[in-house]
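[step 3/7] fold_predict: job queued, chain A
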Amino acid sequence: MSSVRVQELNVYPVKSMRGIPKARLRLSATGFEWDRHWMVVRADGMFLTQRTHPSLARIATELSDEELILTSEGSEPLLLPLAAQGPGRPVRIWKDTCEGLDQGDEVAAWVSRVVAEPVRVVRTPAIPGRSAHPGYAGTTPSPLAFPDGYPVLVCNRASLDDLNRRLPEALPMDRFRPNLVLEGLPPFAEDRIASLEIGQVGLTLVKPCTRCIMPSTDQRTGIRGFDPLPVLRTFRFDRELLGVTFGENAVITHGVGEFLERGAQCRVTYDN
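[step 4/7] structure written:
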């Protein structure tokens, strides 16, 4: 087998807004640095994503040394401090209830105009109140900011190539919103990977990622297009999870504070 390397690194500062491709990034205790540290919620605290609000993809994100910068066509850029500040309010992600720090009326009004309904924006506290499901993550502590359930999402370039050969139109990898994309593997070899060693960083792949309607959303326009789920369902339906899978959720075993680089070689360990 050819060597396995990191092809892409992506960070998504605001849950369901546009991601940022990175050549190099730091690993934090909750995953890639700044990944899903902000989130859009309804007034009752329930999280919002592209599943119901595809227009979130129209908001681009950038990071400076001190600020998160949001931009969207027709709006002036919005600057948010990176510091964990703001009054606490309860928020919900699926069945998890935790605390978010409200980012204020100006931020809420800006995002509300883009998504065309009243929303609030929250930031994760300095000490997050969530953890990955121990039934999959095991005993390794896995604190979470605001991802659906796990710190890192790993995808395989060859798996997308295989899927695209079955589709009437090819989809880009950004439709699946991975943090880490690998090259040099056979299609769907990620199903059998137990762990990855990338420099000083160790990841354990713990659970297939079940998919929803989000891969049908153009990550630049926020417009729904071709939905790959019916095709994926023909060969990627997981009877145990009762869902269609693409990619693998991972937890961090070691390397918090270390850097990952695009092009880095990976040492792969497979399940027995």
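[step 5/7] annotate
Helices lie at 105-115, 134-137, 157-166, 229-235.
The radius of gyration is 18 Å.
exit 0
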